[in-house]
Amino acid sequence: MRKNRAMTHAVAVLALDHVIAFDLGVPTQVFHAARDADDTRRYAVTICSEGGRPVRSTAGFAVLPDHDLTALSTADTVIVPGVGGGSPVTEGTVSAAVAEALRAAHARGARVVSICTGASVLAAAGLLDDRPAASHWAWARRLRALYPRVRWDFEVLFMDDGDVLSSAGVGAGIDLCLHLIRSDHGSEMANRAARRCVVPPWRDGGQAQYIERPVPAAAGSGTEPTRAWALDRLAEPVTLEEMAAHAQMSVRTFTRRFRAETGLSPARWLLQQRVAHARLLLESTDLAVDAVARRCGLGSASALRQHLHAAIGVAPSAYRKTFRRSGAAAATGPGDAAGAA
What we know:
alpha/beta; six-stranded mixed beta sheet; two-stranded antiparallel sheet; 14 helices; about 10% strand; globular
């Protein structure tokens, strides 16, 4: 279910006992930050519980939701935050009322989303049977044992299976919420929301969620300055040797440090940034696909098509058509002719 872009999208967040407080707060914070250029909010978030009763959080305080399960009956998106205890993660069950409300919301077309071990609630309701799902890596053994029919992936940040989406814990919940905003309204709004929340605007859902490394270097040290330098040069060919030279490291040391800090190789990270920039240009300008490819450093329209399809499964023209806002002003640069893919 997707509403007209000009309408407010209703998000219902279901809190259960042992709710993880951070996960509960993420949707409210991120979706409230999703606004048009004129500061109009596009999402209305409500918190609900079974019977509208207070629930205990894992942070040592109680939460008193303003709504009961009827909020799920009208929501466009239903989100279940993680739980740190209770029957979904100990017995593989959830109350009949919660299961029925979730199944009814999904059946009528609501988008159903989980953060962290909230996936156990969806699994207990039968919504993840024979489907791929993500959750926090630390719960892998238990969730696999409780819900063997789910096609678990405990390595990725989040999983988008269309009408059902799931994420790993903590920061990955933010990534997933930004992904939903980007899917609904495009990168420009998602980037504005990320800036309001002071978080990175985009991390690929397939990125590894757990990277063993020492405490990250302080801002301004390590490979961060070189990443900023490379982002300013996406239209130019940037080699690994040039990045290492900028960081004043050997190629071997730079590659090792870069992977430790980002979880990606320099080449993979740079490609992700180029694709992300291409998506923004496709959404916000009328530049020809060849011009978009040049501006993001992918070289040609065919290369852009290949990488965009690998990332999100669609061609540039289809992506632009999906996210083109009616009446939006489009910017073109000198010498760049507008055109179709």
